[in-house]
């Protein structure tokens, strides 16, 4: 579909998103129902016959399905299973393999009992202590599929009936991550915050995120690895909108152009949010300052300060920046008269 997007005029981008990128409504309904069945299974049945009592405190849906940014025919969801048997971040690291194996075994058994409209295909893992159990849900009717990761996690947040976690939670996370050398490893514990950060955003911003994700997938198909994480591009799109337009209705081409220009200027990126953590706690503040002094690009996960989702991947960013520079000459950034789409002053981002 590269030719479809690259040849689409700026004025037609909204239509392109509507026709090619928004998921089929009936497929979404099917997937939602199937997810509920599997979530209920994980909460109520999965560990019923386990050797040691296992209690699931909650199952949280993340990924693009949870955030509301799924692409047509290409959806993913993280089902994070929070277990009361895990008492620390280190506990999660050491014991997740045993829980994943139990989930895999029970899910295969459960598949045989199901009389639903989807097929479950469990993926094999060669790692002795895998981070996730991967499987696919395929829709017979729509020939679309959703990729799932089931991830056991330590329930550090508990019942999320507050806006901002207590800073001690992040101080403990930082201490354990640095001592274990596993920064960013426990972002699954903060899935609810990651989901909430994007889920409440305006519909049109989610459409722009879909467009950027689609562009990223085209780049991935063409260039292969290494490339930056897709999540980094999602956050970069939010940043561009917050620092640029910030309104619910905006010009899609201007937003798209701004994101690609930020990719081109990747060496200047230093992006973070203070929605869930900030500089008030001394230990957290010291750590944040260290993170922000690292070589750019820096894009901190808004829910997990130990995760720099831009990563130390300068080669990947360079390759993506070169592709973005080429794309900025394409018709999707041209006005009706062939001139380049102007960037409204509202879309001018200040790079710190």
UniProtKB/TrEMBL annotation:
The keyword Endoplasmic reticulum does not apply. Its cofactor is Mg(2+). PROSITE patterns: 25A_SYNTH_1 (PS00832), 25A_SYNTH_2 (PS00833), 25A_SYNTH_3 (PS50152). GO terms for cellular component: cytosol; membrane; nucleoplasm. Its EC number is 2.7.7.84. It catalyses: 3 ATP = 5'-triphosphoadenylyl-(2'->5')-adenylyl-(2'->5')-adenosine + 2 diphosphate. The keyword Transferase applies. Gene3D superfamilies: 2'-5'-oligoadenylate synthetase 1, domain 2 (1.10.1410.20), Beta Polymerase, domain 2 (3.30.460.10). This is 2'-5' oligoadenylate synthase. It comes from Cricetulus griseus (Chinese hamster).
């Amino acid at each position: 579909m590269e030719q479809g997007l690259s040849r689409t005029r700026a004025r037609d981008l909204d239509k392109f998103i509507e026709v090619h990128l928004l998921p089929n409504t009936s497929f979404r309904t099917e997937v939602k129902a199937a997810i509920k069945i599997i979530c209920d299974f994980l909460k109520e049945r999965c560990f019923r016959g386990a050797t040691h009592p296992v209690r699931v405190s909650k199952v949280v849906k993340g990924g693009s399905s949870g955030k509301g940014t799924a692409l047509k025919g290409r959806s993913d969801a993280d089902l994070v299973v929070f277990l009361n048997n895990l008492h620390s971040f280190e506990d999660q690291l050491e014991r997740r393999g045993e829980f994943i194996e139990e989930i895999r075994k029970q899910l295969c058994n459960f598949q045989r009992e199901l009389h639903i409209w989807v097929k479950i295909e469990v993926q094999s893992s060669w790692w002795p202590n895998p981070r996730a159990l991967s499987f696919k849900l395929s829709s017979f009717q729509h020939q679309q599929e959703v990729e799932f990761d089931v991830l056991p996690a330590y329930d550090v947040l508990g019942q999320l009936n507050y806006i901002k976690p207590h800073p001690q939670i992040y101080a403990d996370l930082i201490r354990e991550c640095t001592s274990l050398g596993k920064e960013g490893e426990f972002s699954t514990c903060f899935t609810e915050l990651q989901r909430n950060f994007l889920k409440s955003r305006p519909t049109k911003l989610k459409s722009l995120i879909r467009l950027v994700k689609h562009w990223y997938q085209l780049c991935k198909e063409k260039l292969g690895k290494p490339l930056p994480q897709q999540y980094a591009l999602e956050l970069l799109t939010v940043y561009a909108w917050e620092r640029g337009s910030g309104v619910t209705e905006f010009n899609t081409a201007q937003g798209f152009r701004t994101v690609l220009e930020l990719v081109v200027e990747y060496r200047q990126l230093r992006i973070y949010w203070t929605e869930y953590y900030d500089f008030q706690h001394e230990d957290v503040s010291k750590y944040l300052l260290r993170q922000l002094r690292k070589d750019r690009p820096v894009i901190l996960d808004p829910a997990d300060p130990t995760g720099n989702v831009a990563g130390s991947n300068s080669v990947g960013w360079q390759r993506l920046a070169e592709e973005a520079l080429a794309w900025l000459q394409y018709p999707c950034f041209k006005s009706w008269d062939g001139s380049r789409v102007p960037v409204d002053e509202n879309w001018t981002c200040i790079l710190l």
